[in-house]
Amino acid sequence: MYLSLSGALLIALATSLIFYFRFKPLHGIEAVLQNLGEGKLSRSADLISSDEFGKLAKGLNKTLFQVSEVVSVNQSISDDMAAAAEQMSDSLGSLSANSQTQAAAAEEISASIEEITAAVQSVDAQAESQLKKVDFLKQQMEELTREIQKTGREVSTATTEFTKISQEAKN
Question: Helices 52-170 and 2-37, interaxial angle, to 10°?
Fold first, then answer.
C-alpha cells in the first residue's frame, strides 16, 4: 500500500513536472499579452520551441511588430498633423493681423473720403455763393449800363439842343 501511494505520488510529481515544462512557454506569452494590454509593445515572446507554443509565440511576435509599426506610423502622422495645425494657426494669426491692418487702413481711407467730401461740399457751397454774387453784380452792371446809356442819350440830346440854340443865337 505504501508502495502504491508512493508510486501515485511519483506519477503525480512527474506529471506535474511534465505539465510545468510543457506549458512554461504559455507564461511568457501571457506576460507579453498582459504588457500589450497595458500598451507596452517593447517585450516580445521567447521562441523556446518549434511546436504549437513556438508557432504561437512567433505569430504573437509578428503581430507585435506590425502593431508597433502601425503605432509608429500613427505617431508620425500625428506629429505631422500637429506641425501642420501649428503652421495653420500661425498663418491664421498672420491673416488675422493683416485683416486688422487692412480694416484700419480702410477706416482711414473712409475718414479721408468723408473729409474730402466735406471739403468738396464746402467749395461747392462757396462757389454757389460766389455765383449768386456774380449774378447780382451782373444785374447791377446791366442796370448801371442802362443808366449810362440813358444818360448818354440825354447828354447827346442836350448837346444837339445846345448846338441848335448856339447856331440860332449866332444867326
Answer: 10
* pTM of the predicted model as reported, rounded to 2 decimal places: 0.47
C-alpha cell at 146: 442802362
Integer Cα distance of 110 and 101 in angstroms: 14
Do residues 50 and 74 lie in contact, with contact meaning Cβ atoms separated by under 8 Å?
Answer: no
Distance of alpha carbon 79 from alpha carbon 82, whole angstroms: 5
- DSSP one-letter code for 50: S
85-132 confidence digits (pLDDT tens): 999 999 999 999 999 999 999 999 999 999 999 999 999 999 999 999
What's the helix, strand, coil split of the chain in %, to 5? 90, 0, 10
Per-residue cell: 100: 486688422
